[in-house]
Amino acid sequence: MALGYVRVARPDDVVDIARIQLTTWQVAYRRLIPRTVLDQLNVEWLSEQWHGAVTAPPTPEHRVLMAIEQAERESVAEPAPAYRVGFAASGPADATTLAPDENHNALSDRVVAITELLVEPRWGRRGHGSRLLAASVDHWRTDGYETAVTWVFRDDVATVKFLTSTGWAPDGAARALDVDDLLVPQIRMRTEISAE
Protein backbone atom coordinates (compact mmCIF):
# COMPACT_ATOMS: atom_id res chain seq x y z
CA MET A 1 0.00 0.00 0.00
CA ALA A 2 1.33 3.44 -0.94
CA LEU A 3 1.71 6.32 1.50
CA GLY A 4 0.47 9.78 0.50
CA TYR A 5 1.52 12.96 2.24
CA VAL A 6 1.94 16.71 1.71
CA ARG A 7 4.95 18.92 2.41
CA VAL A 8 6.04 22.46 1.60
CA ALA A 9 7.51 22.67 -1.91
CA ARG A 10 11.28 22.96 -2.26
CA PRO A 11 13.42 24.42 -5.07
CA ASP A 12 14.08 20.93 -6.46
CA ASP A 13 10.30 20.50 -6.93
CA VAL A 14 9.93 23.34 -9.45
CA VAL A 15 10.39 21.25 -12.61
CA ASP A 16 7.91 18.67 -11.34
CA ILE A 17 5.39 21.40 -10.45
CA ALA A 18 5.68 22.70 -14.02
CA ARG A 19 5.36 19.18 -15.45
CA ILE A 20 2.27 18.46 -13.32
CA GLN A 21 0.67 21.75 -14.37
CA LEU A 22 1.37 21.21 -18.08
CA THR A 23 0.22 17.59 -18.08
CA THR A 24 -2.92 18.34 -16.10
CA TRP A 25 -3.87 21.30 -18.26
CA GLN A 26 -3.30 19.29 -21.44
CA VAL A 27 -5.52 16.47 -20.18
CA ALA A 28 -8.17 18.15 -18.02
CA TYR A 29 -8.52 21.46 -19.85
CA ARG A 30 -8.14 20.34 -23.47
CA ARG A 31 -11.82 21.07 -24.14
CA LEU A 32 -11.76 24.39 -22.25
CA ILE A 33 -8.55 26.06 -23.41
CA PRO A 34 -7.65 26.35 -27.11
CA ARG A 35 -5.06 23.82 -28.24
CA THR A 36 -2.95 26.64 -29.68
CA VAL A 37 -2.49 28.03 -26.17
CA LEU A 38 -1.73 24.64 -24.59
CA ASP A 39 0.79 23.87 -27.35
CA GLN A 40 2.71 27.08 -26.57
CA LEU A 41 3.29 26.10 -22.94
CA ASN A 42 6.41 24.16 -21.99
CA VAL A 43 8.00 22.87 -18.82
CA GLU A 44 10.98 25.24 -19.02
CA TRP A 45 8.83 28.38 -19.18
CA LEU A 46 6.46 27.16 -16.47
CA SER A 47 9.43 26.23 -14.25
CA GLU A 48 10.69 29.80 -14.46
CA GLN A 49 7.27 31.07 -13.36
CA TRP A 50 7.15 28.69 -10.38
CA HIS A 51 10.76 29.21 -9.28
CA GLY A 52 10.02 32.56 -7.60
CA ALA A 53 6.83 31.29 -5.99
CA VAL A 54 8.77 28.50 -4.32
CA THR A 55 12.09 30.21 -3.55
CA ALA A 56 11.03 33.81 -2.87
CA PRO A 57 7.28 34.11 -2.18
CA PRO A 58 6.01 37.69 -1.80
CA THR A 59 4.87 37.03 1.79
CA PRO A 60 5.23 34.18 4.31
CA GLU A 61 1.52 33.47 3.73
CA HIS A 62 2.13 32.64 0.05
CA ARG A 63 2.75 28.90 -0.11
CA VAL A 64 3.21 26.10 -2.56
CA LEU A 65 2.54 22.64 -1.15
CA MET A 66 3.61 19.40 -2.81
CA ALA A 67 1.68 16.10 -2.75
CA ILE A 68 3.88 13.01 -2.61
CA GLU A 69 3.03 9.37 -3.13
CA GLN A 70 5.57 7.00 -1.66
CA ALA A 71 5.48 3.38 -2.73
CA GLU A 72 6.10 0.50 -0.35
CA ARG A 73 9.70 -0.52 0.16
CA GLU A 74 10.54 -3.72 -1.63
CA SER A 75 13.38 -4.41 0.78
CA VAL A 76 14.77 -2.95 3.98
CA ALA A 77 17.99 -2.00 2.18
CA GLU A 78 16.27 0.00 -0.58
CA PRO A 79 14.51 3.33 -0.02
CA ALA A 80 10.92 3.43 -1.20
CA PRO A 81 10.44 5.43 -4.40
CA ALA A 82 8.54 8.71 -3.94
CA TYR A 83 6.63 10.51 -6.69
CA ARG A 84 5.61 14.15 -6.87
CA VAL A 85 1.97 13.90 -7.91
CA GLY A 86 0.25 17.25 -7.28
CA PHE A 87 0.55 20.69 -5.78
CA ALA A 88 -1.44 23.58 -4.35
CA ALA A 89 -0.54 27.27 -4.42
CA SER A 90 -2.25 29.91 -2.30
CA GLY A 91 -1.80 33.32 -0.79
CA PRO A 92 -3.67 36.34 0.53
CA ALA A 93 -6.57 37.41 -1.69
CA ASP A 94 -5.64 40.32 -3.95
CA ALA A 95 -7.06 42.18 -6.95
CA THR A 96 -6.87 39.04 -9.13
CA THR A 97 -9.36 37.41 -6.75
CA LEU A 98 -12.03 40.03 -7.46
CA ALA A 99 -14.73 39.73 -10.10
CA PRO A 100 -14.81 42.37 -12.83
CA ASP A 101 -16.24 45.63 -11.47
CA GLU A 102 -16.25 44.21 -7.93
CA ASN A 103 -15.40 46.76 -5.26
CA HIS A 104 -11.85 46.41 -3.94
CA ASN A 105 -13.32 46.06 -0.44
CA ALA A 106 -15.54 43.13 -1.46
CA LEU A 107 -13.19 40.65 0.19
CA SER A 108 -11.82 41.21 3.69
CA ASP A 109 -8.15 40.91 4.58
CA ARG A 110 -8.90 37.55 6.21
CA VAL A 111 -9.55 35.90 2.85
CA VAL A 112 -7.02 33.56 1.26
CA ALA A 113 -7.08 32.45 -2.37
CA ILE A 114 -6.06 29.21 -4.03
CA THR A 115 -4.37 30.01 -7.32
CA GLU A 116 -3.72 26.38 -8.34
CA LEU A 117 -4.75 23.00 -6.98
CA LEU A 118 -3.73 20.25 -9.38
CA VAL A 119 -3.15 16.53 -9.20
CA GLU A 120 -1.66 14.88 -12.25
CA PRO A 121 -4.50 12.82 -13.81
CA ARG A 122 -2.67 9.47 -13.61
CA TRP A 123 -2.44 9.93 -9.82
CA GLY A 124 -6.07 11.01 -9.40
CA ARG A 125 -8.62 9.47 -7.05
CA ARG A 126 -6.02 8.52 -4.45
CA GLY A 127 -6.78 11.28 -1.95
CA HIS A 128 -3.99 13.65 -3.00
CA GLY A 129 -6.35 16.56 -3.72
CA SER A 130 -8.03 16.12 -0.34
CA ARG A 131 -4.68 15.99 1.44
CA LEU A 132 -3.47 19.13 -0.37
CA LEU A 133 -6.67 20.95 0.56
CA ALA A 134 -6.55 19.79 4.21
CA ALA A 135 -2.89 20.82 4.57
CA SER A 136 -3.67 24.20 3.01
CA VAL A 137 -6.55 24.76 5.44
CA ASP A 138 -4.27 23.94 8.39
CA HIS A 139 -1.81 26.61 7.22
CA TRP A 140 -4.60 29.13 6.58
CA ARG A 141 -6.07 28.67 10.04
CA THR A 142 -2.62 29.14 11.59
CA ASP A 143 -2.30 32.36 9.58
CA GLY A 144 -5.68 33.57 10.88
CA TYR A 145 -7.71 33.35 7.69
CA GLU A 146 -11.45 32.89 7.96
CA THR A 147 -12.51 32.40 4.34
CA ALA A 148 -10.97 30.82 1.24
CA VAL A 149 -11.86 31.50 -2.38
CA THR A 150 -10.76 30.20 -5.75
CA TRP A 151 -11.66 30.70 -9.39
CA VAL A 152 -12.52 27.55 -11.35
CA PHE A 153 -13.52 27.00 -14.93
CA ARG A 154 -17.31 26.80 -14.92
CA ASP A 155 -17.23 23.73 -17.16
CA ASP A 156 -14.51 21.93 -15.18
CA VAL A 157 -17.01 19.49 -13.73
CA ALA A 158 -14.42 17.41 -11.84
CA THR A 159 -12.97 20.38 -9.92
CA VAL A 160 -16.37 21.90 -9.16
CA LYS A 161 -17.62 18.53 -7.92
CA PHE A 162 -14.49 17.97 -5.79
CA LEU A 163 -14.67 21.40 -4.14
CA THR A 164 -18.44 21.11 -3.58
CA SER A 165 -17.92 17.74 -1.88
CA THR A 166 -15.49 19.39 0.57
CA GLY A 167 -17.83 22.22 1.56
CA TRP A 168 -17.12 24.87 -1.07
CA ALA A 169 -19.92 26.60 -3.00
CA PRO A 170 -20.18 29.19 -5.78
CA ASP A 171 -20.45 32.66 -4.27
CA GLY A 172 -22.20 34.26 -7.26
CA ALA A 173 -19.13 35.94 -8.75
CA ALA A 174 -18.28 35.14 -12.36
CA ARG A 175 -15.81 36.24 -15.01
CA ALA A 176 -14.60 35.17 -18.42
CA LEU A 177 -10.94 34.79 -19.30
CA ASP A 178 -9.92 35.88 -22.77
CA VAL A 179 -7.78 32.96 -23.93
CA ASP A 180 -6.62 33.43 -27.52
CA ASP A 181 -9.86 35.27 -28.44
CA LEU A 182 -12.02 32.65 -26.73
CA LEU A 183 -13.92 33.69 -23.61
CA VAL A 184 -13.65 30.91 -21.03
CA PRO A 185 -16.21 31.34 -18.21
CA GLN A 186 -15.11 30.96 -14.59
CA ILE A 187 -16.98 30.97 -11.31
CA ARG A 188 -15.62 31.86 -7.89
CA MET A 189 -16.06 29.34 -5.13
CA ARG A 190 -15.83 30.04 -1.42
CA THR A 191 -15.71 28.24 1.91
CA GLU A 192 -15.43 29.27 5.54
CA ILE A 193 -12.31 27.91 7.23
CA SER A 194 -12.44 29.36 10.73
CA ALA A 195 -11.39 26.82 13.32
CA GLU A 196 -14.41 25.44 15.16
How would you describe the overall organization of this protein?
By secondary structure, the chain is of the alpha+beta class. The protein has one domain (3-192): 3-Layer(aba) Sandwich (Aminopeptidase). 30% of the residues lie in helices and 32% in strands. The chain contains five helices and seven strands; from the N terminus they run E-H-H-H-E-E-E-H-E-H-E-E. The chain has helices at 14-28, 35-40, 43-55, 128-143, 157-165; strands at 3-8, 63-70, 82-92, 111-119, 147-153, 169-179, 182-192. Strands 1-2-3-4-5-7-6 form a seven-stranded mixed sheet, sandwiched between helices. A hairpin with a 2-residue loop joins strand 6 and strand 7. The radius of gyration is 17 Å and the shape is globular. GO terms for molecular function: acyltransferase activity, transferring groups other than amino-acyl groups. InterPro entries: Acyl_CoA_acyltransferase, GNAT_dom. This is N-acetyltransferase. It holds the Pfam family Acetyltransf_1.
Summarize the structure.
With 196 residues, the chain is of the alpha+beta class. It has helices at residues 14-28, 35-40, 43-55, 128-143, 157-165, and strands spanning 3-8, 63-70, 82-92, 111-119, 147-153, 169-179, 182-192.
What's the structural blueprint in terms of helices and strands?
Elements: E1 3-8, H1 14-28, H2 35-40, H3 43-55, E2 63-70, E3 82-92, E4 111-119, H4 128-143, E5 147-153, H5 157-165, E6 169-179, E7 182-192
Parallel strand pairs: 4-5
Antiparallel strand pairs: 1-2, 2-3, 3-4, 5-7, 6-7
Protein name: N-acetyltransferase
Domain N-acetyltransferase: 27-194
Pfam families: Acetyltransf_1 (PF00583)
